[in-house]
């Protein structure tokens, strides 16, 4: 560990020295892989606008991002789930959360003879995932889907085998709508699944669902859209059945912004409000409140202002849901907390 | 007279020190790995103690970690792979060294060794798209009476222990067969000639050669076992990744290497991380035990051979390395 730290220090030192030579500013960050495509786009676009700023981002996973930020080996971190109080205490200084974009998670399924969209309520979805509902023609599912002829096939549950922000959002939602699920499974990036098989990544889960008749799984909305996978609709807090879309995910954030805590550490699953898709979440960038390197801090604050405004227009082409303007306004205010 | 010899002896000493240092480096490296694994898993070692080895719950939410399902899955899949691959690999080795026409020998040997060069992710993809559907249709076709046997119980998912064992077997065959072939090549031809002289059939002569080279052949099998124990990527893609302990070949299960690869990046809290590292430690210890057992086995067989024959085949004693991962 020590040797790695020294080596890393040397490398970073060398990088910094080189950057100073070229008058360039290099800033390193690491974390979540879910927002990697848009972060990469942002950093490269920002570099075109400000050639002297080079931001490097490694998508090593949210856990890794939090660890590296706490060890101060990177300037900023990124996470799909907010840091826990315990993790915040473990860091050498106060850390601020800034939501950047939004993502949604959708249920996908493969039922022989069933075409079209199935409807799920939160409770039914939780019961299926927990293995309490075992057949597709169970009364609880048919009651939600009148007119759909469901077969007596056994249900197989497919989940992510790798630790993932997608899992976090999905189980966070299920825990909110089903006390039983909260009790038996709980919320984390990996959980102790009562039943089912695990696939690695969105593609692993989608592969399991596609290949195995009778299977239900969950993937990121972006993944389902890009791969043209049909997905089910989910009943939201207000009782509407909604199919996820970029807009309905943003709507969830907009309605949640009314009760936004000052540190933005908020779960927006099962958000109230019309048209709000219930399995939605922010993804965050993490900064120290009092960064050691003031020059870098200044650059990153400028970058954040750009990302929260002009940067949001890249969301649609990459399949992310943009932040609602209410949240952007709150964040612009919060950026002032970073001590420059 | 004095100068050159003294210089030579100084050179010798330098050379010996140099090479000795490199040898020591290996020892230090292994000790370093063990120490680092031990140090970073302290948290989980203190909290769970021996319970970690026997616990069946793996619950990152509640912070309850037991590695037994993973140990079970790793050993089950590796032993299954050995059961499937050993006869095939030995068959290949015997054919190539004893029976094959000379001009087929080189291309066939080349092709088997090529199997070892295929990256495990490619095996994994092949597993998902080709092997798993075949296994599933086989599972669907399983007659009802057979499903009552615990070995074949469970829904037809395709992914599961059987797929993992099959894919590992394919990956292990080139290792076992090429080492076994070298061993058979090293058996002195006098052994076979003597067998023929005594009126042995070809089959009996081959048996004699096999018996003579058994140390090396056991070594070859253990080399394959080591490869299977450490395999990560291909296994996680087809094993089903469900930490349960089941005797069924059809049940989705999990392995030690797979859970580390899957959960390490997102493990944010310290106990969780420490438990994952302890799985690495368990894997390390199991590898050491497997190695020690193989040494013991080879040692006992060599002793026996030594007593009977004056010139045993070079002990191709192998340490089972934890395979090529990735």
Give a written overview of the molecule:
The complex is a heterodimer of chains A (340) and B (326). Chain A is α/β, with parallel strands linked by helices and 340 residues long. Chain A is 41% helix and 19% strand. Chain A has 14 helices and eleven strands. In chain A, the strands form two sheets. In chain A, strands 2-1-3-11-4-8-6-7 form an eight-stranded mixed beta sheet, with helices on both faces. A three-stranded mixed beta sheet of chain A has the order 5-9-10. In chain A, a hairpin with a 5-residue loop joins strand 9 (233-235) and strand 10 (241-242). In chain A, helix 5 (122-130) packs across helix 7. The longest helix of chain A is centred in the first third of the chain and has 20 residues, at 2-21. Chain A is elongated, with a radius of gyration of 21 Å. In chain B, strand 1 (58-59) and strand 2 form a beta hairpin. Chain B is globular and about 70 Å long. Chain B has helices at 2-40, 42-48, 51-54, 68-99, 102-117, 120-140, 144-147, 161-186, 189-197, 202-212, 214-230, 233-238, 256-263, 270-308, and strands at residues 58-59, 64-65. The longest helix of chain B has 39 residues, at 2-40. With 326 residues, chain B is mainly α. Chain B has a two-stranded antiparallel ribbon. Chain B has a single domain, classed as MetI-like (MetI-like fold, Orthogonal Bundle). The model of chain B is unreliable at 310-326 (pLDDT under 50). The chains are: A alpha/beta (340), B mainly alpha (326). The A-B interface holds A 1, 60-64, 66-67, 83-84, 86-87, 90, 154, 156, 161-165, 185-193, 196-200, 204, 207-208, 211-212 and B 36, 40, 57-62, 128, 132-133, 136, 155, 157-160, 236-237, 240-243, 252, 254, 258, 261-270, 273.
